[in-house]
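Q: Sequence in, structure out?
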Amino acid sequence: MDAKREARIKRYMKEGGIHYAPLWRIIGFSGANMAGNLFMGLTMIMSFYLNGYVGMAVIIASSFSTITRLWDGITDPIVGFFVDKFSGNDHIGKTRLCLIAGGSLLLINSYLMFNVTDRLPEGIIRPIFFIFFTAIYYIGYTFLNISNHVGYVCLTNDPAQRNILSITGTIFVRVMRAVMQMVTASLAIKYGSIRSAAFFHEYWGIVAILAVIGIVISYICVLPKDIPEFSTIKKNKEDSVKFREYFDILKHNKPLQMMIVARATDQFSNTCKTSAITLVLYGIVVGNYNLSGGWTLYTTIVGLVMMTLGIGAIGTKLGLKKAMQVGSWGVVILDTVAILIWIFMDPKTLSLPGYLNGYGQEFSGFTIFTVCLFIVTVIGGGFQMIISSIINPMIADVNDYEAVRSGKYKAGMIATVFSFMDKLLSSFGPTFVGIGFAIIGFKDVFPDLNTPYSTKLLVMAIVFYYGLELLGAVFNIIAMKYYDLTPEKMKEVKEKIYEMRKANE
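A: Exactly. Output:
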């Protein structure tokens, strides 16, 4: 290694094998996570497009989301293996490769899916066209998803900075979700229905612009750290990964097994919170779908403060495992209270400044229902954010643990075996929602803004919006009993990695 290159690498090194990145690079890299969530948000409302323009009934449209998620899981190990086989260099590292491939495939194929399909002649050509480009779309999503996990490994292994990565990533994602929920509600009212083709054309344009900006910023921020010195241990043929190592990882990496249990149950509940469930809860039960956007923004801002305190205090001082446990117990308690509020109070009295309530009345003060639900939502949402925001830092720790266990960095394989099992177990959420709607009488079309209220719809919304999330938190608590990557353990892991790299120079 020449002196100039060595000096550039040492610029980012601390004692004990710790390497870091400037704060602005850490914050900026969160743009990749934001972009991935924006593109995934398109699939969360996809069932309305399938129902309205591709010609699929409710259960089939919901099952399509399950099938595509399974396909997404199947492509994960293949893409992950390819990424880990690619050694990378100064010109194009693993993270940058994934950003370019993922961003390009997502942008092109999402345009074809949501801007071209409805302009084709009606009949068999529409579903064939949509399904073909959806399959490629999910390959792009896999690449972009891997970029986050690989980027977290090469950007920093400093425990404090990995906490910052989780904080900034969650802030970007949560704020953008709140904004896009406002966009969804606004466009639904503007065009009269979520099934409108014009709704999807405009929504796609907003997603495309924001996602491209996020990916470009991430690329710039990871540039100096996305090199082999921060993502490999050995630089010879012995370091080459083999496909059969997937089975070894899944069998012997116990922390990864526990992360899969925790994440899959959480994701199952998240995939059940489809746009149809949100529409039922706010558009039908509350009686004003436009409130969903304002409500999400208000509660997200306060919830982010809770999350920041949780990660900053709990994650740094007590470790990520403790943060997961505290967050999960918080979700169990607060979701239980939220369910009782929706059942025993009047949801139509939900009121916010600048919005009409469910009775068509202008804001005249905060009602008891609003105050109670707000408190429960922001505190419970803060605990949920603690859970979701520490997943990536925990997977980064699992990557380091695997490097010590096997002698190789397998960031792509770890990321994809994790996401494959996650998607395999959680993929049935949308199908469950579709079956639920069919059982209560909605077999051909989803409930829409003009659907009358019924107790069945209230129960449906509560079960899929709160009940399954509560159950997922219980599984988290159980899984963390067997997750042994404590702060003390991770200190040993990082020192061992540093010794292994020095021995192989």
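Residues 159-191 form the longest helix (33 residues).
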